[in-house]
Write the structure tokens for this entry.
Amino acid sequence: MKTTIAVLPGDGIGPEVMDAAITVMNHIAEKYGHEFTYKEALIGGIAIDETGDPFPESTEQTCRESDAILLAAVGGPKWSDPAASVRPEQGLLKMRQVFGLFANLRPVKAYPALAEHTPLRPNLLENVDILFVRELTGGVYFGDRKEAGDGTEAYDTMIYTTPEVERVADVAYRAAQGRSKKLTSVDKANVLASMRLWRRTVVKMHEDYSDVELEHLLVDACTMHLLTRPGDFDVVLAGNMFGDILSDEASVLAGSLGMLPSASLGSGKFGLYEPAHGSAPDIAGQGKANPIAMILSAAMMLRYSLELEVEAKVIEEAVEKTLESGARTADIAPKGGEFISTTEMMERILSHL
């Protein structure tokens, strides 16, 4: 199988974890007879420095010529001024819009080997395997916004249309059908009109997915239930902002944001794959970054865009075996305990492939 992959290392620890993921991908290619071609391009802060644009046209063209996109991380103190007219995160938002990537899939799995590392009681983490489906191109992040010239007044607008909710809910319902057939839809329908539209649409669509158990939770209640009964969730559907916050909160179930991959999908097989964590500039260049989220993001790319399910599972199983063997990077090591480097963690994973 010949495949072209756009590689966007970005900023901070991005190049370090991307190198680890590419090494694993090359191992998979050799083992299973695939041919992966990588085209590297700029995004985020480094793209601003070199071109003035966080998502330059050359990068967009590289992505269009590829079968999928692997992205590591963007941002850092150098570009963190919220008042700046150009910011690294704008590159991500533009990419999602340009390629119509409306559904963000974030799996959160609690590994038994890391149960003692999380702040929750180990018994609460039993059977935790959640898939967050987050709407990605609508809501308050993309609505009209304005800030008064004197800085004393500002607004952001949350807008959803029925078709926007239908297409992401369809992804969530179909995902639930392939898992434990339970869907939790999160909204704030008791206060927000846009969320009442969200709930009405999800309820109506349930007629076509009657084999799926549907539960509704207000977002404030969901934040509590994720930490008191996380094992009860299967697929969680949420809007852009709520899905962003809830999936980050759920990172404590896995032990660290460094464990969480994600996939951003549209109507076809083309997708963007990136870890849920940021650029971690405080540890950049020190070999301390956890490469697991980036490696698992590559596994999701194999599954969803390249339809290589066996290869994806092999990587996921290798990660789990590596954790069971006791390998830990700094973010998932016991306080004061020993930990290994980014490269060493990648090599341990390779050994289990």
